[in-house]
Amino acid sequence: MNSVLNILMVGVGGQGIMMASDILALALMYSGYDVKKSEIHGMSQRGGSVFSHIRYGEKVYSPVISEGEADILFSTEEMETVRWLNYAGSESCIISTKTKINPAEVKEYPQGVEDELKKKCKNLVLVDHEALSREIGNIKFLNVALLGLLSTHIDVPVDSWEKAIEERVPAGSYEANWKAFITGKEYKTEES
User: For a tag on the chain, would you pick the N or C end, based on fewer CB atoms within 10 A?
Assistant: First the structure.
């Protein structure tokens, strides 16, 4: 039987979801998996919703994750986590930062989002993005630090991650990104 695992990565334009999904897909390929990826980033330059479907296993035929089929929902913004929850199943792992970015045309961020996530998600990993950013020294490496956290939930050897990060991050930023990855891998989070 061909087992395919599904990771849905969501966030807001400018948070590095596209780079993170590229690194993840490459690390999975270096680990010997067949990988399919589909992404949408139409309004990403204006702070709009950004998402990437990543499916991997022995043999993958479609790049799109169906509703209720994401094994992991990886989110860099709270409202985006809520928006995409219907793609997660009851046993899915939800990795979400506590980041709050007002959607376009919205003056005040909705209240109670974190409490709602805690009620709805059985396997919720909440990340204090400010504390993690302080640990890594620069918020622009937060997406790679979150990949480090994700790496503790999937079977990908550390050398595959290292090779993928080195290949995909901007020139001259490998050391800082690798440090961020390791910090994320060792980071203690709130889990419900």
Answer: N
